[in-house]
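Hey L., structure's done. Input below.
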Amino acid sequence: MDENDALVEQTQATKFVPMKERISFYLSGFLRDMSYATWGNLTRFYIDILGFVGKWNWMNAALPVVEKIYDGVNDPLIGAYFDSRKYGAEKARPFFRTTALPVALGLLCAFLPITFSRSNETANMFLRAAFALLAYMVYEGFQTLNATAHMSLYTSITPNIDERRGIVSRVRLFASGGSGLISGLT
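Output:
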């Protein structure tokens, strides 16, 4: 065993993640997957609340297509930005601090039943669709940045392999709980 291997082994044996960081990681996994699961109810919201039925039913097909095209452009750009960004000692933490509020606002706005015009149904429906799409873009853009930072922690939260395995298993359990809670409530 050379000096470098001994240093890695010593670091793995002595490094531990404080409980505050563990709980934050578990909670972020829970809330992140909870917000993902909420999107599963969006089509029902479009139909039941926004009224994308009858002659407006085509919006239920068009909006997801536009959203996925946006994802196809947004996701690689966000990933490239995250990977190429200059950072000090903390790569992910600044993103957790700056993305939580826009993610929550985007999710909230996506489920707002706004009426833009009571007299012009066509304008009202197109503006509702545009607002829903804008809310999705805000949500998804910041959620992707947050999720990229979150996923980077799976491999970097600690150099201790055994501790990391336990933390990541618990995060996945909490994440499943978050999506399961929404699925069970709806």
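The CA atoms of residues 78 and 145 lie 6 Å apart. Helices lie at 3-14, 19-38, 42-48, 58-84, 93-110, 121-156, 161-185.

-- N.
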